[in-house]
Amino acid sequence: MVYSKELNHIMGNFFTMKVGVDEDELWKFLIMPFMSGLVGYGTNWLALKMTFYPLEFVGLELVRFRDQPLGLFGWQGIIPTKAAKMAGDATDLMTTKLINVKQVFSRLEPAK
């Protein structure tokens, strides 16, 4: 390795003598956190893209179940696929448990 003397001096032979890692393989251990971060960033980016995009189904819609983003040959984002169900559930929750619809309409002024 090109910088073996400098690394041995800086790290006090920790990797080469105490742990038993060869100087030529030291770079593999030093690059692992960076590669792990890159892979983690890439998978998180892909997961967000697949959650929200595409808005409409892309592919051949030969076999596809209702409210499912995955078809036999295609994909639609998870949130756009389930938007109608989520809106219905939110409306039902608000009108039955959170607010009283009669009270809301009684507070409205007909002149405005």
Discrete helix count: 6
Strand order of the largest sheet: 1-3-2
**SSE order:** HHHEEEHHH
Q: Note the overall shape.
A: elongated
Straight-line N-to-C gap: 80 Å
Largest sheet: 3 strands, antiparallel
C-alpha Rg, in Å?
29 Å
Q: Which structural class do you get from the secondary structure elements?
A: mainly alpha
Tell me the fraction of residues in β-strands, as a range: 5-15%
Give the low-pLDDT segments: none
Number of strands: 3
Query: Can you give the mean pLDDT?
Result: 81
Helix content: 55-70%
How would you describe this structure to a colleague?
With 112 residues, this protein is mainly alpha-helical. It has a domain at 4-78. Helix content is 61%, strand content 7%. The chain has a 3-stranded antiparallel β-sheet with strand order 1-3-2, with no helix packed on it. Strand 2 and strand 3 form a beta hairpin. The mean pLDDT is 81. The chain crosses the membrane at residues 26-47. Keywords: Membrane, Transmembrane, Transmembrane helix.
What's the helix and strand layout?
Elements lengths: L3 H8 L2 H6 L6 H27 L5 E3 L9 E2 L1 E3 L2 H4 L1 H16 L2 H7 L5
Antiparallel strand pairs: 1-3, 2-3
From the structure above, extract its key features:
3-stranded antiparallel β-sheet; 6 helices; mainly alpha; 3 strands; elongated; 112 residues
